[in-house]
Design a protein that fits this description.
Elements (H helix, E strand, L loop, with lengths): L2 H8 L3 H32 L4 H11 L2 H10 L6 H12 L1 H13 L4 H9 L3 H16 L8 H29 L10 H12 L8 H16 L4 H20 L1
Amino acid sequence: MSISQTAQTAGDGSGSELRRGVASCAPVLLGTIPYALVLGAQASQKGLSTVELSMMTGLNFAGGSEFAAIQLWTSPPHVLLIVAITFLVNSRHLLMGAALAPFLRDLPRREVFPALFFMCDESWALGLADAKQRAADGIRPAFSPRYYMGAALAMYVTWVAFTTLGALLGPMLGHVETYGFDMAFPAVFLVLMRGMWKDMKAALPWLVSLIVAALVYLFVPGAWYVAAGAVSGLLAAWLMAGEA
């Protein structure tokens, strides 16, 4: 069923768009739960309380930087180092926000700011793919704020709830990585990439980003591979656009 058919079936109400966002996010949520538990368990092993972890995941809401922060956590913590690495890991949000900007331009600020706060890799990918599909199906406006917030809020509640549960269960579970839960993290991103796949030519910037990030990860200490992968992928896309 196409998105246009789904929209006609569900109706045009804001409630139906919210439900559509939650429903489309459901498969991703199933993959999110395991690595949310991993983060919570790791945080408890590092000495963070359940309240501290809940505040971190609720206020920061960026899983990659939270994993990096927990890995670097000491007592007392090296605050400047953690802030710097967190900035590098989250630098991809600059590009993600830029990609969403054309769709958010005409929205009031009371809707734009929450949309940006709740933006994560999963909600961004789902919202952008949905907007492109709606545009192809001739639906205007192409971007559905309610659909996007349905997916984003589902991700937020699931992430905060299950990282907290992981912190509570951490002492009983021990090292949850032994159960293979950490494999859910790359699996979710592979699913998201598949949903945004067009053709091999369009995937070339992804390939450039992957190769550069892998090389930097192998030879440069720290989280510079995140910024290097993002910048190289953006540069590759710009060069390809110039040749078209």
